Amino acid sequence: MKIPVYQPSLSGNEKKYVNECLDSTWISSKGKFVNKFESSLASYTGVKHATSVCNGTVALHLALVALGIGPGDEVIVPTLTYIASVNAIVYTGAVPIFVDSLPDTWQMDPEDVSRKITSHTKAVMAVHLYGHPCDMDRIMTVASEHGLFVIEDCAEAFGTLYKGKPVGSFGDIATYSFFGNKTITCGEGGMLVTNDETLFDRALHFKGQGLAKHREYWHDVIGYNYRMTNICAAIGLAQLEQADGFIRKKRQIAEWYKEGLQGLPVTVHGEVGDVRHSYWMVSILVEKPDQRDSLRDALATAGVETRPLFYPVHTMPMYASKFQRHPVAENLGWRGINLPSWPGLDELTVAKIVGIHKEYFR
After folding, report:
1. Could you confirm whether 352 is annotated as catalytic?
2. Which of 169, 193, 228, 328 places its Cα 20 to 30 Å from the Cα of 25?
3. Considering 30, 32, 182, 288, which one is annotated as catalytic?
4. pTM over the 0.90 mark
């Protein structure tokens, strides 16, 4: 494709810091960049503790393990999400309980969360989808009333604010992903963050093969090798130094799309309420599901890569054994498209993409 849906912008200190790793020979999970990236990320996201991991999926699994989620437990999760949010629940032996979405924000519906709580419910996973935050006031109120943990999946919401506060700072524990198509990237990487020191200690313990604190090579739990390398942390730190600029540019790109697509029969995913949308992926809805694929085909023919919105997870074979209806999520999933959204896009390129939309709807 001439215009990819995403590509990283590696225009800062990435090469310099990676070369420092190579020159020092600290290339595995120890080295100065790991600690620097963790402390800088904690500060940026407004939390007390952060520990790096090798990707966003294991960050979710580690968060669930740290909370003690396991067989017999239920975790409420939106069906309109990336598959990793749900799979991580199943890895622990717990059961994902799907909830529908809100039609305006596309985020999990707090009223549906309330309806799905049972005696087996242990946690709510609030996934901040495509860069817009969930309604954290309502979710935290429901969780508090029922004594539930709240896990924030911020994989797609780095830099997102809810009422002036960074997402990831509301729940008991939160996770980030730094895959190559995320707002900041390590190539592969993730982070677990929390304000709870006990949860932080548990996460450290489990992510490092269950190594005991005060005895060398003594392991007292079954742990995991979820550590981030110094090289990945070096790239992550260099990206974090540029984060404010990336977010400003992505919000500018979203405005270009909104202005250009005005008057066409599409709806751009926008901000609802006192929030800052980070626009990980600028996304649109067409009016009818049967328009989605043909519009994507027209864009692909012109060299523009796009993605469909996530398919609701309850419709996928391994999660569809019991028939469920989540009408809002299904409607969004069948009509949505992610447009090119990387921070290196210029106004002329966005105008070209908009022009293809105008030609299609003419």
Report:
1. no
2. 193
3. 182
4. yes
